[in-house]
Amino acid sequence: MQYVVKERKTEIDGRFGAQVKEESGTEINRCYQCLTCSLGCPSAFAMDYLPHQIVRMVQLGLREQVLTSSTIWVCAGCEACATRCPNEVDLVEIMDVLREISLREGLAKERSIADFHRIFLGNIERWGRQHELSLILLLKLKTRDFFGDLLTGIKMLMKGKLKLLPGRFKEKASVRSIFQAAKR
Amino acid sequence: MSQQTAAGLRYAYYPGCSLEATAREYDLSVRAVCEHLGIELIEIPDWNCCGATSGHSINRRLASILAGRNLALAEEMGMDIAVACPACYIRLRSAHQEMQGDDSLREELSRVLAVSYQGKHGTRHLLDVICHEVGLENLKNKVVRPLNGLKLAAYYGCYLVRPPGLVAFDDPENPQCLDGLLAALGAEVRDWSGKVDCCGGSLSLSKREIAGQMVNGLVEMAKRAGAEAMVTACPLCHANLEMRQAGADGNKLPIFYFTELIGLALGIGEARSWFKKHLISPSGLLASYGL
């Protein structure tokens, strides 16, 4: 089936809603579009679709638009929507699932945010704890943004707020085996 | 259950990664204040990162097991966990809840780490511990330098109060415990409507302009309510509110950790050294009240 949405032809994936429902464990069909989520969303101003629209699009099976949207990455996961939803639709869990699927299928639109999450987890896999200085430097290499925050970074180094070396963590092998287990 | 000893309360302490670096002054003030209040904190040996927002954002199973390792370590110590960072707090509580409801996850944790994890102990935030175990009357009685006149906005952010099914020590829309705590220290606490709005901390490094807009909206709101500083219990909010605040240095609102202000009011001598680590210096503001 083909529908015209936002003036382009769109494939409908009739199983998408069921997939998201199953992976997130939340009943998306309870949403009756009251807009409480979108009205209270603190990062809605930077989204291409509002949160309640994403839910509707998932229900309708607009798989590609949802998975390539900036909304799922701009969501800061602050839990305001899930707390306020009168129908207990856990939109935070839904966003987590949509990000997972979007990464799995190589559709992530907001590269810098997806890169941030991957670098963040890579550091934990390597050192067991987060090392903020290398998190910042690796993100800069990846996004080729070398001068943003330079002065702030220097100030933080001078105040001892950024450590030069990662913290001492012994059981690196057990953290690596956690990553192995979770990747399966 | 927290362990009551003759001296007071005892917890397995989980500092979290930020408290080793960008939030060094939070860690220092937590340890000093807890010692002063008779809360014994024993750091969990060889704790690992909880996975934070990035963990559950792209791999929920990984997030649960990473956080779960710390729960298992604390269980070996036989104590409840006390956490300073709300992001760690919610990750540890979330993993605990998931392990209770999902035997396969608990078994996987036990198998990967070769431990037998039962999930016997809970995780509490230090704001909860100080407000509800130490008690605000008790805290008030220990104040030697009341913060008289200092006008503060209590900023809770997200994970201390949401989601209510996971964290339940205060109201999710209009929490009061931090307001009450600051009032007990003698400060003038301003009522405002931004106390549980997100500052965009998880986007602070990857999307500066979005985080900046969120931060400056909050700061303006706090200023309009008459606040001269904001008070947080979160290292990510603190870093984001300091780094992304716009305007000339003299017009920026200083951001305090709640434990720093407790330390100041209790007369802990080293408190001044914590403030030197701030990007927005609060020393002018404090001096104007003789603090």
Description of the molecule:
The complex is a heterodimer of chains A (184) and B (291). Chain A has 11 helices and 2 strands, in the order ββααααααααααα. Chain A has 184 residues and is mostly helical. In chain A, α1 crosses α7 (91-104) and α8 (111-127) runs antiparallel to α9. The longest helix of chain A is centred in the middle third of the chain and has 17 residues, at 111-127. Chain A is globular, with a radius of gyration of 19 Å. The mean pLDDT of chain A is 91. By secondary structure, chain B is α/β, with parallel strands linked by helices. Chain B folds into 2 domains: 3-125, Glutathione S-transferase Yfyf (Class Pi), Chain A, domain 2, CATH 1.20.1050.140; 135-288, Rossmann fold. In chain B, strands 1, 2, 3, 4 and 5 form a 5-stranded mixed β-sheet that branches. In chain B, strands 7-6-8-9 form a 4-stranded parallel β-sheet, sandwiched between helices. The radius of gyration of chain B is 19 Å and the shape is globular. The chains are: A mainly alpha (184), B alpha/beta (291). Chains A and B meet through α6, α7, α8, α9 and α10 of A and α2, α3, α5 and α8 of B.
Question: Can you tag this structure with a few keywords?
Answer:
heterodimer, A: 184 residues, mainly alpha, Fumarate Reductase Iron-sulfur Protein, Chain B, domain 2, 2 domains, two-stranded antiparallel sheet, globular, B: 291 residues, alpha/beta, Glutathione S-transferase Yfyf (Class Pi), Chain A, domain 2, Rossmann fold, 5-stranded mixed sheet, 4-stranded parallel sheet, 47% helix, 11% strand
